[in-house]
Predict the structure.
Amino acid sequence: MARFARWIAALLIAALGTYVVGVVVNSQFVMNAHNVPISFGDRLNMTAFDVSNMWPYLVIIAVALLLGFLIATLVKRFLPGLSRFAFPVAGAAAIGATLGLMFIMFQTVPISGARSAMGFLSQVLAGGVGGWIFAKLIGVGKSSGANAPS
């Protein structure tokens, strides 16, 4: 039970990390899209506003990472040599797939900073950061039994 709680706590922290990185980068892409000079203070204010108000994206990220990390946990069992990379790749893939599904459903990406190729890649990179955070928190490579919920 303790491993399961640790796994869930790591998932939530990884989702929060992905969210903060993704929203901060998203905010910068949106502000830069207008080609208008914006002061550092205004950038900081707008970014803080986005971080505090885009919480539905946090829920979407948490669900995406949950699915991605569960799949990575299974893949690691069959390909243990990939253990070191499984969760960062799963986090990146989960966010990329989620943004792709959003496009299929809405014919646009609701995360407006992810509508360009670089914006999309930055969100995928944020998912990779979340996967790295998750791997560090559950101790990938330290012991084989601590990596999966039970």
In short: The mean pLDDT is 92. Residues 2-33 form the longest helix (32 residues). The chain is about 75% helix and 0% strand. The CA atoms of residues 23 and 52 lie 10 Å apart.
